[in-house]
Each structure stands twice: as C-alpha cells, then as structure tokens.
Design brief:
The two termini are 12 Å apart. With 144 residues, the protein is mainly alpha-helical. Helix content is 64%, strand content 0%.
C-alpha cells in the first residue's frame, strides 16, 4: 500500500502471518480434532477438541484485545486532534461523538473535519458512514 494512496476502498489491511496462517491453522486443527473424535472416540481425542477450541478462542481474543487497545489510542488521539482543530461550539461537543465515530474520523483531513463532525453529531453516522463521507483521505498506515 506504500505506493498506492489510501482510500475508503482500499484501507482495510491484512497481516498475512495472522490472517493467512495462524487463523487457518487454528481452524483446521479444530476441525481435524473433531474428525478424529468422531472416528476414534476417546477421552484423549475429546480433550484435544477442548484444547483446540481453547487455542481458537485464544487466537480470537488476542486479535480482539489488540484492536481494542488500538481503538482506545485512536480515540484519545482524535479527541486531542479535534480539540486543537475545532472551534466553539463544536469543540465543546467532542464528548458527544461515539467511539466508533472517532475511530472513523481519523482518516479525515483537518480541513474537512469540522463539517464531518457536524454531520456525525446531527446524523449519528456509523464508522463506515464516516469513512465513506471523507473526501480527502488522511492515511493511517500503522494499524493492522
């Protein structure tokens, strides 16, 4: 993506080792342990299902927790940015923006931020709607 301008259409990023190796390996392992249990039922093959399910849950939660931390940092960054960019009365309404709106607003350039914040407050835009409404995309290349 370094040689291509980021936009709403291409901003989703994948981490190949995670998305294309760890997740498939966890899923295949779980499925194969279920097949083994059906073919050769025993305490050990049943326990392997439990272990594989725990591994799949760990993979899911590791990803979910990392994204939650990134969202918290983004919300903090955007509140600070909005406080410096917005004029009153919008500045005093920053607290009314939802977390998902703040995360979506990170892609908006400073020039279009006031109008977009006004729309967020008036129309209760979702994260996807906020990102779709951005005309001048400010890339975020650090999030995975």
């Amino acid at each position: 993506m370094a040689d291509q301008q980021q936009s709403f259409a291409n901003h989703v990023r994948y981490n190949p080792p995670f998305h294309f190796f760890i997740i498939p390996v966890a899923a295949i392992t779980f499925i194969s342990t279920v097949v083994q249990f059906v073919r050769f039922p025993s305490f050990n093959t049943g326990w392997m299902i439990v272990v594989a399910a725990a591994a799949c849950m760990a993979v899911f939660f590791i990803r979910a927790y990392a994204l939650q931390v990134q969202d918290r940092v983004i919300r903090l960054e955007e509140r600070l940015r909005l406080a410096s960019v917005l004029q009153e009365p919008l500045r005093s309404r920053i607290g009314e923006l939802t977390g998902t709106q703040l995360v979506g607003l990170r892609f908006a350039c400073d020039a279009e931020l006031p109008a977009l914040v006004q729309r967020c407050l008036a129309e209760k835009l979702s994260r996807k709607d906020v990102k779709a409404a951005i005309a001048n995309w400010r890339p975020d290349t650090t999030r995975i």
